[in-house]
Structure prediction request, 197 residues.
Amino acid sequence: MAAGGAMAAAMAGGAGAAMAGGQAGAARSRSLFLWDDGRPMRFYLRPGLAKLRLAPLVLAGGGRLCRVQEPGAVLLAQPGEAAPDGAVSTEYVTECVERNQRLPLEPFLLAARGRLAFTEAEDAALLRAARGQGTVRVSGCALWMELERSGLTRHSWQAMRDRYLRHLRPRLWGERGLRRRARVARERGGGAGRGPR
Prediction:
């Protein structure tokens, strides 16, 4: 069912709960994600499949989604994902919907985790993906957004771009520079130590 169809079914409050992403029934209560004073709960979740799956549930329950992380908004993160202190599991939304009641946030708080380290396999995948793309393309955002959507690594597009530009590309240039200097030295007959570098 399309996200719009799931949302419409959820707002209609029908007995047959619409499925959003095939995982959780849509909210029957239009006030599910309202604070005690009647204000809508605001949630931030970085763009991706989880946001697409949860957006209809939050909106149908009276909540709001922020485009950027705002003060006072509930920061949602997927379990197992690197998350800052105070982040709440995405399971909070689905549990509230399944029980048709607003639950306390505390049991769904995620333990703060440091940055998720890149593995050698992820570094190799980034190098393969960036090879032959050109300086403008790897410096921009579109390539990295495509790679995040494709699930190339477990990291956000920003983290992949940063990893490539700050760590992987300089290493490549460093290795190429060393090989070039060695070749020039051989051509000059071993005079690598003479003259400015």
In short: Helices lie at 3-12, 49-60, 91-99, 120-130, 135-139, 142-150, 157-187.
